[in-house]
Amino acid sequence: PTQKIAYGFFAETVLLLMLYAASALLGAAKFLTLADPLALSLPYNQLGGLANVLLNLAALTGLLGGGLYVATGSRGGRQVKYESVLQYGFWLWTALLLLTFLAGIFGLLEGRNLLELPRFLDVYQLIVLFALIVTIGANGLRSPLIRVWSVGMMIALIGVLAGLVQPADYVQDRVWRLLAVGLQLNVAYPMAGAALGYWLIRRFSGVPRMWTDMGVYTVGGLLAIAGVLVTLPPLFRLGAEEISITLGYVALIVVPILYLIV
After folding, report:
1. What are the strands, taking DSSP E only, across the chain?
2. Do 172 and 207 meet the contact criterion of CB atoms below 8 Å apart?
3. Is 173 exposed, middle or buried (0-12, 13-18, 19+ CB in 10 A)?
4. What is each CA distance from 249 to 148, 242, 246, in whole angstroms?
5. What is the pLDDT of residues 35-48, one digit of tens each?
6. CA-to-CA distance for 244 and 240, rounded, in angstroms?
7. DSSP percent split of the chain into helix, strand, coil, nearest 5
8. Total-model pTM
């Protein structure tokens, strides 16, 4: 049954990517003519926000499905823990995807770039995502791949939590937005994706288990360092220009090296 839940996450990921492609293409088509029949019902800013939200949820959904598949497979035939929580979590996540799509169609998304989800859906996402990450992690705690995946997904959770902070001050709002987006895109997703990538390497190349178990820690750590170096300079630029320039130079030199090593 848990494998079916993982396949459900994968199917939703494909559907979200198709919807993202459709919304992105429709948004691009608006620049081809001045006579846009959907200019009022689906303006460009609404489609752009919907595309951003769909792509972000597609990444999260795919990572959840991959983590669940690897975690349950690592149990070696033992009973899956908290199976009912996983099932209910999948249904609640599916409801989130549906509500998000409807919010985008009816123009209920917010105007913060890459953080367009309405506040109540952000809270909903935070609760369901936390429950799923903890439950999946509990089923594969002995696996180094799931440990790195769990750390990455927890950082994504912190990014969602940071996105809930909406100070009245414009500069502070930019700081929290950059922090929320940077943690998710630059740190969390690469780490969780690397863990799943190492599982694929072990599955299809026949490399020793020890190689993947040790390698995923090294690569996950390097990706985290690179992600932090990419995320920090824009934050300091808002309040300390010299620090921002220094970190920017460090990131310019170190990050490509880290990615080449990975």
Report:
1. none
2. no
3. middle
4. 28, 11, 5
5. 766 666 678 788 88
6. 6
7. 80, 0, 20
8. 0.90
